[in-house]
Specification:
CATH class: Alpha Beta
Strand order of the largest sheet: 1-2
Distance between the termini: 32 Å
Largest sheet: 2 strands, antiparallel
CATH architecture: Roll
Number of helices: 3
Number of domains: 1
Helix content: 25-40%
Number of strands: 4
Strand content: 15-25%
CATH topology: Nuclear Transport Factor 2, Chain: A
Length: about 100
Amino acid sequence: MAELDNLVPGKCTKEPVSMDKDMLIELAKKYTAAWNSQTPANVASFFAEDATLYVNGAAATGRDAITEVAHSFMTGFPDMVLLMVMGSEPFTLEATT
């Protein structure tokens, strides 16, 4: 989808992007695959350089910090699999171990 070109990991900007349901689902599939790749940098690539990810109330700011958070999950839960579950919302992301 050409509309997703600016959503390719590593090309995130602060500019808002209008997405329809199909684009949102495609982005969620790519994000799910990044978590399941067991490569923390793949997860961080979905965030802008100065983005902040909140996990359990703790803030990780910047791609390096986000990479560390992803790494801690991947090493702490090596059998974790993120699933994209289609439903009425249009989907949820759920982790299993």
